[in-house]
Amino acid sequence: MALITPDKWGALPPRKTRPFHKSSVKGIAIHWVGVQVNGDSAEITRSIDRYHRETKGWWQIAYNATIGQDGRGYEGRGFRNRSGANGSGRANRSHAALCLLVGPGQKPTDEMIHATRDAISAFRRLFPAALEIVGHRDVKKRTECPGDYIHTLIRDGVFDPGETMPGETPSTTPTSGYPVPNRLLKRGDRGDEVAWLQYQLNKHGANLKIDGIYGPLCRAAVIRYQSNNGLVVDGLAGNKTISSLIGAAL
Ligand SMILES: [Zn+2]
User: What pLDDT does residue 174 have?
Assistant: First the structure.
């Protein structure tokens, strides 16, 4: 779903904007509000905009976009303009700031996660090489933002919209005619053996696109399978993990 534009959610016009330079953009930094917030996501976004303009004296809302628990996304500065929320000029030039409208004790809803992936896809259409997805704390010292829980989701690749490149057609083969891996599989690997792994993980509750690419979501699914099955949790599909999946498949 497309982001709701500032005129639609009632932002005031920015006092000033500065565009990103393609050569310095590295990716997205995910933030949270830091205090529990509930209610209408448009109203929460308007109150952040007011706070940033009036109390902080900034040009406009400092986030490039905000995402509500209801799955609605709001364009703040937009993805063409530099962020103002990352805590340093350098980080504001390198990472767009995406704020999840949650605080301590509030877990992102599925709708929020899907809307975040959609927003990151939109960002990547502008900056296809800027693939980093990090937490605010990864680009600024001494901040808890976006909290430990969301930070773990980021590291597990939950917000990554996927790595299928334009023009690639994901395989939709419904049954496993894929070869059983006879080597260690890890992030970045590609091929039919990875498709086998994805197919088996889906039988254990994962919801992976069977595209033969060992991306962050595939790694996160391996981690979940390992921790559910008493295996060493390392995100690598080695002998023990593959044997366990074969055993479960028999
Ligand atoms: Zn933050």
Answer: 42
